[in-house]
Amino acid sequence: MKLSYITAALEEYAPLSLQESWDNSGLQVGLPAEAGGEVTGALLCVDVTEDIIAEAVRRGRNLVLSHHPLIFKGIKRFTGRTVAERAVAAAIREGIAVYSSHTALDSTRGGISYEMARMLGARVIRALAPAPTELLKLSVICSPQAVDDVQLVMLDNGASTCCIASIRSSSISNDNDGISIDLDSTPACRISATLSTNACRKVKEALASTPGSAAYIFETSVLRSDDTSTGLGVVAELESPLKGDEILALVKEHFGVPCVKAGGNFSPDMRIRRIALCGGSGGEFIPAAAASGAQLYITADIRYHDFAECASSPMAIFDIGHFESESCAKQIFYKVIKNKFANFAVDYSDIEQNPVKYL
Predict the structure, then answer these.
(1) pLDDT tens digits, the chain, 359 residues: what are they?
(2) Rounded CA gap, 80 and 115, in Å?
(3) Which residues contact 130 (CB under 8 A, 6 or more apart)?
């Protein structure tokens, strides 16, 4: 299996365009030239360490998929001083590729917070902090003979429908980001569709690599999207209300949490129907969770002062731990790859442990 096939499947599910500006999702370490781009299987984890790389070697897997980026800030030297330096050096030495999907997986529809809601049997209503998404209107101007090929490329790369119109070549504007051409045929054709930024790029790349001599002019315009399904965190509803102690038991069971830091208005007898969830450090979204009407907000890394601020809040707060809230990334990786490549070898790490211990 080509490494590029696996990364393409992951980025189709969690586009890198969704990651936060400060993040470093994507391919962290590539394969050596002698591997020919072929991967033998994937090992799934939250954090990449030397031990994880050694486990991948031992199990015959030359790809590690992690949630947290192995390379987050710039590495200026490889002296073996830090965990990241040692893991990068081990990956290069052993010929192991490393791919990390961090806030891209956090923000995508069906990502970390969606999975958290699913684990509790809750239905997602919307993102807690919707991403500022944009859709593009892409128009491809071509000769009439190329219309069918162009339409198929657009449909294959995310367009739900295409609008086809005949135009006069003299009306074509060439001051856009495509190739300036002189269409001899009259009329020419304009095929238009609404696409995400990532899908728009794929269409252009596909048409640029299409065999033949056809030339295209691309016109793009930005459309604001009212899509609230992508972004950090989710607002969800349980099928029926649960008491506080009942949902506490569910959280401990499904997230493997030995104890929960609780605050706000939590009581064992409170009734909970609407919940907000955010994998990882979600303290900044406490106001958004409260504004959503949630009776409970489940996240991690809540500061003492945040708990103090929420002491009189009508909303309860659970801090379930960073690792515990994001460990479900491994299940998402598994489903994405197996849905595309059923026979590809995918393993969960047997040795990974939460770096935080509960005594």
Answers:
(1) 999 999 999 999 998 878 998 999 999 999 998 889 999 999 999 999 999 999 999 999 999 999 999 998 878 888 999 999 999 999 999 999 999 999 999 999 999 999 999 999 999 999 999 987 667 788 888 888 888 888 888 888 777 678 888 886 544 444 444 444 444 445 688 898 877 777 788 888 888 876 543 567 777 776 666 678 999 999 999 999 999 999 999 999 999 999 999 999 999 999 999 999 999 999 999 999 999 999 999 999 999 999 999 998 999 999 999 999 999 999 999 999 999 999 999 999 999 999 999 98
(2) 36
(3) 227, 228, 229, 230, 231
Residues in the chain, overall count: 359
Angle at 7 between CA 323 and CA 326, to 5 degrees: 10
pTM more than 0.90: no
Extract the tokens encoding 242.
């649960």
> Distance (Å, rounded) from C-alpha 44 to C-alpha 65?
5
Q: Are 276 and 292 in contact (CB under 8 A)?
A: yes
Contact 19, 108 (CB under 8 A): no
Residue closest to 237 by CA, chosen among 352, 354, 111, 126? 126
Which tokens belong to 170? 């003299």
Do 346 and 56 meet the contact criterion of CB atoms below 8 Å apart? no
